[in-house]
Amino acid sequence: MREAGLPVTLRVDGRPGPMEERVALTVYRIVEEALTNALKHAGTATALVRLTFADGSLAVEVTDTGRGPGPTPDRIGHGLVGMRERVALYGGILRTGPRPGGGFRVYARIPLEPVGVVLA
């Protein structure tokens, strides 16, 4: 994304541990889609990707400093729908929307099950 013109900062809080491949792919796709949307729609902006590991869950937050949603903010694109579906598969939550003062925010929280544990 940096090479495409979107300066991005990554911040990791907490201690990452083992994660199911499918959950890791979901996190990757959320970040990828959020940054792609920022690159397409934010104009001149910067982005912050923040991963927070705490209390048996992973919070993924992608924010940008761009111009925010266009004149039709109620329109939900396919990418946001796909994010919501992916997060729901793991019992997580997704929140998206404009940020106060400009820009856009994508926030997901996904519960992390211990890898290798079989639930009865």
UniProtKB/TrEMBL annotation:
This entry's Enzyme Commission designation comes to: 2.7.13.3
Top-level lineage group: Bacteria
Q: Which SMART domains match?
A: HATPase_c
Q: Which reaction does it catalyse?
A: ATP + protein L-histidine = ADP + protein N-phospho-L-histidine
Specify the taxonomic lineage: Bacteria, Bacillati, Actinomycetota, Actinomycetes, Micromonosporales
Organism expressing this protein natively: Micromonospora sicca
For this protein, the record's Pfam families field holds: HATPase_c (PF02518)
Read off the CDD domains from this record.
Answer: HATPase_UhpB-NarQ-NarX-like
Transferase: present as a keyword of the record? yes
Keyword tags: Kinase, Transferase, Two-component regulatory system
Protein name stated in the entry: histidine kinase
Which InterPro entries does its entry note?
A: HATPase_C_sf, HATPase_dom, Sensor_HK_TwoCompSys
Q: Where is the Histidine kinase/HSP90-like ATPase domain?
A: 22-114
